[in-house]
Amino acid sequence: MNNRLLEKEKRAYVSLYKKDVLPYSLILCAILAELIYDIMILDVMPVNYLMGVTVMINILILFVLFTCAVKVNIYHKMWAVISSFLGIYMLIRMSVLVPFVLKPYARHTEIMAANLLGGIMLLAAGFVSLKHSNIRQRLQEQLQKSEVS
Fold this sequence. Notes:
Oligomer: single chain
Helix content: over 70%
Distance between the termini: 15 Å
Structural class: mainly alpha
Number of strands: 0
Number of helices: 5
Order of helices and strands: HHHHH
Radius of gyration: 20 Å
């Protein structure tokens, strides 16, 4: 019994120091999809005041996405939730903002695909990171209980 408990503790210690690689990679791929979207939408949208607003919003989104990637890699739950909300934003942007507000006159399919891909990757990264964070939190609680006992 004692050996089994020690083995469980060893596995817990190993898993506590492991980075959360899958959500991190998914968010980095979503950053790539966001960059592709940015380039395409700025290439085809009409030149007006919305172009400046779009650039500023996209710079902010890229900054938040990079911060999400770094924080999710070390199991921060709040940033996992933020990445999920950004995924929802990308899906809403794909279906509402792009066709009705920005009105690009070409490359609709590529712009929609970049948004869809980025949104799905961010949602997946957020949910996977929340799952991993909850597992890690339970392991930490078990370690604290075993240390007290």
